[in-house]
Structure formats: C-alpha cells, structure tokens
TrEMBL record:
It comes from Larkinella arboricola. PANTHER family: DUF420 DOMAIN-CONTAINING PROTEIN, HYPOTHETICAL MEMBRANE SPANNING PROTEIN. Keywords: Membrane, Transmembrane, Transmembrane helix. The lineage of its organism: Bacteria, Pseudomonadati, Bacteroidota, Cytophagia, Cytophagales. The chain crosses the membrane at residues 12-33, 45-67, 79-97, 117-139, 159-178. This is Putative membrane protein. The keyword Transmembrane helix applies.
Amino acid sequence: MVTLQIEQNKKYNRLINVLAVVIPVVVAVLLGIRQKVDLGAWTTYLPHINAVINSLTTGLLLAGLYFIKQKNISAHRNAMLLAFTLGSLFLVSYVLYHLSNDSTPFGGQGIVRPVYYFLLISHIILSVVVVWFVLRAVYFALSGQIAKHKAVVRWAYPIWLYVSITGVIVYFMIAPYYRH
C-alpha cells in the first residue's frame, strides 16, 4: 500500500511540475501571437470581468484563511476550491482577451508610471511562480497530506493573495486607457 502511495505521489508530482511549466509557456506563446483572432466585441469586456474574478478570488482567499483559523475545514475547503476554480476561469478569460485584442498601453505619467510597472512586473512574475505552489497545495489537501499542504501553503497563500490583489490594482490603473 505504501508503494502505491509513493507511485501516486510521483505521478502527481510529475504532472504538477509539467503543468507548472506548460501553463505559463502556453500563455506566453498565445500572448506573443501578433495576429489576433476575431472572437467578437464581447471580448473587450473580459478585463472588467477578470477584475471581478480577481476581486472575488481575493475575498475567497481571505475567507479561506478565516475559516481555517476557525477550524472550519469544510468551509475552508469550499472557499479555496472556489478560489482555485475562479483562478482557472481567470486564466481562460485572460488568454481569450489577449488572443483577440491588442494589449492596452499604459498612459499614466510621472511617479505613477514606475509604480504601475513595478506592480505589473511583480504580478506577472509571481503569477507564473504561484502556479506550481497552488497546484501542489490543492493536491496535498485533496490527497489528505495535510502536513505537506501546510508547508506549501506557507508560500502559496501570500503569493496567490499578492497576485490577486495586484491584479485588481493593475486593472484599476490601466482601466482608463482601455478602448471601447
């Protein structure tokens, strides 16, 4: 039985490692495509929807922390799985937007410009990094490996929270420059 568990762990660790590399690479490749696909005018609303998704994710992450501190494991699990689901939905929506629309240049001037780019760059870098941590945290939680889950969450949670909060901040900073 222990051998089966070790083999399953290896299999899922390999899958997580592959996904943690493939997801950012595929997103980068799709974003790099210069020829945009016409998916319709509805895609121009996706950044606004993404900001809502990031806001809800932030709320769920905070709720998940609250619930686990209250030892309400069921509510914690539900909040975190919903946050994970929203994160996945965000990823699909983000790719659809950038596949069908040109990137919006930031028009801010003065001190706000380096602040915006610092937030944007740190958000992008950490959004790539957090994929591996979140996938492992979810796997460990769902497979009942709570000690490993807690160890990964020490890193996953603050990074994920930062990414979701900065996603909303970056959205509000660039929103005035979106073309409709």
